[in-house]
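Fold Annotation — chain and its backbone

Fields — amino acid sequence, structure tokens

___
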Amino acid sequence: MNFPDLGEFRFVSKLLEGAVPLKQDPPAYRSWLAAGDDCAIFDGWLVTKDLSVENVHFRMDWSSPEQAVEKHIVSNVSDVSSMGGRPKIALLGLCVNRNWSEETRNQIAKFFAQGFARRGVTLIGGDTVVGDVGMFSTTLLGTTDGETTLLRSGAKPGDRVYVAGTLGKSAAGLWILMNRPEEAARFPRLVDYHLSPRICEDMGVQLVKAGVRGACMDISDGLSSEANHLALSSSVSIEIDEQKLPIDPDVIEMCRYFGLSPLDFALNGGEEYELLFTSNLTKTIYLYNEPPEGEIHEIGSVDVGSGVYLNKPDGGRINLIAQAWSHL
């Protein structure tokens, strides 16, 4: 049956082009978890929802349609990954900016269709409307390969604290776009990362396979914030060694060029989408069984107590206050 020759139906048709078939592949373990982690769990399904609003999360004068779509998809996928899962099913809500050209609308539909299909995610429904600004809203469902789910509450005294990937990239790219856009070509990797983050999307699955059974979450609001989330959720204290922070080399170079502090970007920069996790495994497992994609860096330890502390190079120790981005 063909879609009627109406704009909305043509748009939906483009979204469903090449869609991954829906498989009868239910979760193997029927667990349940209410709100409080990167995903909720109902009847074994990991469930997350993220919104991306034009001029808040993406700007079409900065981003290509593909970058805007990819950034939105990654923000959802990283939540599923942080629980040790793989994304499977999506529901997509789209508010199309009434001022977008037909070409932009078509590209948005194309890149959502391709982005989901490339990840093996089945788009099963949603809604489209038109408004004064664009908005993407995805409800993403995933499953784990086994019984283990990584939670924010899983950190235990004696665990080590790790970061997958490097820190500060997205915030540094945003700073350039907002403050020195004429210098964007000097640091293209940072700008590109902010506009369309690229992460190891199955890192959570890799960690579970490697034997990690600690706490985990993605870094969407900054390391200082997420570390405090883990400490509070797990009723522990966390110590981070400043000298061990894997600040991205391009962030260090950019801060040297502009006279800024790379530590600020590493601790408080959001939209990184890399994973912060704890584990009681020794570093040895990462040396001899390195995940096939991505880097892992040990940055601190878990202890009894409460709060998050930053150990300074001079031997000092300060309370690391959460400095998360807030939309309200």
